[in-house]
Structures
1.
Amino acid sequence: GVSRSRHGRTRPCGNPEAMTDFPLLRTYERWVKRNSVWFIPALEYSKSLSMCYAPYSLNYYDNEEWYVGFEAVTDVISLYHDSILGKKSPSELKCGPETTLIKLLKRSLSVVEKSQLFVEIITSRRTKDKWAFIVIIEAVKVVLRLQLLYNNGGRPLNPYSPKEIKEMNDRSKCFEIARQNFPELQGDEETGEFSDLILMYAKHGRGVDPHGNFRPRKCVVKEPANSAEIAAEILHIVRPLIYASLRFRGEKNDFTPWIASLVTDLTSIMLRKIASKIARKKGKSYNVGTSSRVLMLLMYLFRAPFYQKYSRDKLKDLVRIVKRIPLLGSALIGPILEISLELVERRYFTTSAS
């Protein structure tokens, strides 16, 4: 929603990122704010139940698109709820100054990521070659991520840390506290003339405690990215598209996509380490963040065609051994591993790390 100040300029009021001009959606957003204490956990609980118990359903594979579709819809709705409540998601990326366009790009990327598995399942059931659609999805994500990378000055698109998320969510609570503490200044949420005061209340670091002090905002000066760092991030972003494009054009058992993807990942990791050394020589700190990407190399054990030729039989032998363990192995761990291996073989996005 917006309001007009005494000088005629439009000002955000309430949560400007979420409130819309559609009466029905505006009503829903207000309802979510009033009932978020129970409604949000209930939605997350229903999604968790679907993810945990659906694979054990006897007709799961006949209705797989419905189960995965429900999870995709709840994930997208959760993104919308986070926007309504002004919350940051743990998977949200740091990408520099967030203009209206950048926020739109981030949300578009999140929606694509949340719905990509559902699109894969739909296309694999109803078309002859799902890889054409996978290439389109990966290409869209590459374009969005490169835009965010440019906006971030070439620095890595890392997710927010738990501490940063807490601070930003506390700041969101500051908005609510400001609105509560200045009811006589706000007027109606859509037409209040003192929304600037509420924004100042939150943006200058007012504590969650309504009796806290205003704190000066910390100005963080970010160092420009060096060429090795930029190249590493570009390779990391385009790697899934390289793999999917080669799978689309090549034969089913061709190792070229797998090798090209692995080489791209290893080159990206090497360049990030070079960027770290360059930063240290200049006496600057650089958060390499390479360990998680090195760990993700384990996914290559589950990607076609390496999985079908080398990993599958060995992992199935391991599952058989686990299922011989009384109670825990035979009734719980064994079946979970067995189902997981089947899903890994059938789904690209489960192991794509994209």
2.
Amino acid sequence: RLPLASAGGRAGSLAACFADKVSSRHANSHALLNCCLALRTGKGGAVAAVGGAFGGLVSSGTWAIPLSAASRLVGAAPSDEAAMRGFIAELVQQAAKAVESDAGSASDIGHLAPHEYRLSLVASFAYKLLLSAQGSPLPPRLASAVAGSLAAAADRPVSCGTQSIGVSDASLAPVSLPLPKLTSLLQASGEALYSSDEPSVAGELCGAFVLAPDGSAGASFCGADWSATLASPGVVDVVSAADFPNPAANATAAADSNCYPFYLHPVGSPLPCVGAPVAVVLADSLPHARRGAQLAVLRLSHSAGLLKQAHPPPPPTSRRSPPDAARVAAAFEQLRSSGFARRNGLRLERLQEETRKAKAAGGGGGGGGGG
């Protein structure tokens, strides 16, 4: 129930009701301050009662508009500037006293937002209530304050912005260079289509990847025990690299991701990182497929020599050392000779050229880029 503080009783019709909140983000966040306010008019359109409550101002719960503030507005027109200023000034003054009394208590909520900021929101919300009660259409510069959304505000053009991230260490270029995400426009506009957007069909199966677990980077994949997976409810089958009719297709399919040498890593292959896919569990629903994937038991072989060669320990410094030119050149040659770069669309010569340019622009740092 919304309390309407009035010096003259309950009369007239409800002229405005305003509710709003301010939080750290649009969703999934507690409000720093919220409110529900109402204003009732009487004869001649004068304010007969005004009231409401604020949440997040004091830790004890809601804080209602006091009579001392309401009396500054009752009897005046909602558009009376002097009455509006008096009402807001008294409201903020009383709110400040309530905040001061609450500060320092065991449940003080001042850490959520500065007291001064929350008091400014009290004034802002009260002003928006009064704008909502105006009888005539508001000019565009004021209408946007009480618009239901920014899209409904006539004076709010489509917003845009850019963010520039500089490379902290030119010797690491093109690492850290900002690159646009090719699918961002479709995803941000809601036009991107996903498999879950398509209607289900009879007999449809859902898949869930079985991924390399923590600590598996650099280990060899020696096989898996699928017994618990296949016994799990709803699971139909498990697809692995051995199920590719043409083994070369397993590598070709991975070219779309630009992340792994195989779409599904076969038995005997090294796992490049945690999360590398080794199989797909097929089931009658996505939850069943995911549950089956979790039950898979992977057999891994850890070789100390292999791990040491693939992942040398970082140097004992707080800042990463510039890459050795010979090691960089050897890495490029390995990618080129293995065919991994060709399959995944990596343009090594362009990569090396951009690296040399970035180093030259940054004043060197780390020597030549290698053949």
3.
Amino acid sequence: AAVARHSFPCSPKTMAAPASPVFDGDVVPRIVAVIPARGGSVSVPRKNIKILQGRPLIDWVIQAAEYSGIFDEVWVSTDDDEIHMIAKKCGAKVHRRSPHTATNTASTESALVDFVKAHPNYDVLCLVQATSPLITPLDFQKGWDAMRRAKADSLVTCVRAHRFLWSVDKRSGVARAVNYDPAKRPRRQDWDGELIENGAFYFTTKEVMEREECRLGGRVALHEMEEHTFAELDSPTDWQIVANMAMIHGFWPPGSVKPEGTDESPGSAEVTILGDSKLGLAAAAGLGMGVGLGVAGVAALLAAAAAGLLRSKAAA
């Protein structure tokens, strides 16, 4: 199985380039965050605004980005009227992306290129995945610090996983170990594990974006995140798992109130939109609903994590 969470329709050309000119001199770079959030979603309908612990999914990353204090602007790029409205209520600016960048086959890179053509006033672009609700403001701060210290052109986020990888030859059916010697099976404490891309966010300088039209290129820095951030949101089960993790690990801005109980069905609760006030669930048709697991669910979550069942997630 592949370990990368995203395939890129681009081939970075200068992965060992000199230090980025963004960090030359005393000028503070202008950093802009963009969150792609199209209206269509094959696996989970209306996923980007589906309710997760009382909040639309995109609100989790919008608030984390805003409270990090490193961004000059936070944008949501969408083709959808309802997402547009909710993103503004959450405090983000909104870019109406071109329809051809919001199809089921369009790449995230096409949405980035569409965005920067319309909004060229930036030095560093940060692609934030709406499907990574466990990002915290500190992650953005540490990620930017890692890129700045490395004087890098781009940055990728990863998690460290102690997983033994295998591949199977399609013709012979013979399996082979990819990242360890079965005859010398290492103990966890004696092995650094593998750094696996978790697709939470990426920093890219304007120079790299204009030259390569890719989120990664030139000198690449890395920010290592906690293993719980390596989770997908592609099924109701995924949603239940992440909903419980969000209660513990998600970012709750000052003054926000965590929902009581686990019932988030329409008519039984309110959607907390932290950038505005509140929107009744019954009035927010199409927002979807989150599902809590309670104590038993948390136990199941921990068991799943221990068994290595948390998988990658699809691009926005």
4.
Amino acid sequence: TIALAMGEQGLPSRLLAPKYGGFLTFGALAAGSESAPGQPSIADMTQVYRLKQQGSDTRVFGVIGDPIKHSMSPVIHNAAFEALGVDAVYLPFLVTDIEDFMDTFVAHKLAGCSITIPHKEHVAGYCADVDPVAQQIGAINTIVASASSSSGEDKALRASNTDWVAAISAIEAKLAAVDGGSGSGLEGQRVCILGSGGTARALAFGAISRGARVTIANRTLSKAQALAKELGCEAMSLEDLESSSEAAGSVLINTTSVGMSPNVDQAAVSQQVVARFALVFDAIYNPLRTKLLQMAEEEAKLTVSGVEMFIGQAAEQFKQFTGGRDPPLELMRDKVMERL
């Protein structure tokens, strides 16, 4: 059998050919020399996705989102699988229809997935077990096919959120490093979160749980107000954030995709807004130094890169994917930094 689907959505058909008994697969000789959309390079096929090591028993994991080709999750998870001798592969899945993908997930017995923009708030209904914290947040970034669940179903899907602990811990670690550990973290601090999606939900929940006073700022005020009402915090529009000098605080958190590669010259807010906060955190990790973080550095503000959140949440996901095995953190960090 030879079945190779075209385009970015067809990439899994090329990367999983050995697992599903494909006679052959096809890739570009080098990155940049693709003859059609969706072709991976031979180097990535053999080194990142380890085609020669795949077999019918290889477990399939992945990350779903739209867009997704910027994601470095496949690089770090596949490196970690290889380092620990885990017979598994991790792919990027461009998903525009979440219902269709979840049907495919079950039909092809995929083992687990990371969830990113814009699907974090839309997968809970497909999962038999939802972690209480993830349920309270209202956003999910990890699903794992479990052989047993509280519902008693075979291969039920278990959902959780590993975003908030990773991000909040990284922010508090930077604050502690500056005050020598004598401070109280985010307790009592004013935190402004840009965005109203799944990541904003998770980080707002985390900040509030740490005792912070949180404001949600979004381009569409109604969305900010809806999220703020759910979480019991304040809301404002980005326009008001820009115009009000009183809109200031300790921590500014960006959870939007503004500034993500390839749009690296963009920032969600102006430098005037950045100047009103002591610490700036950007959930984006590609590029490493986003425009927002560059503006913060110019203002001599503390900064925390999205890499810290990315590695932290991925490490917890890896534990869930492998039944509790400790991830090779330094290797995962090195792989990210190599790509960045």
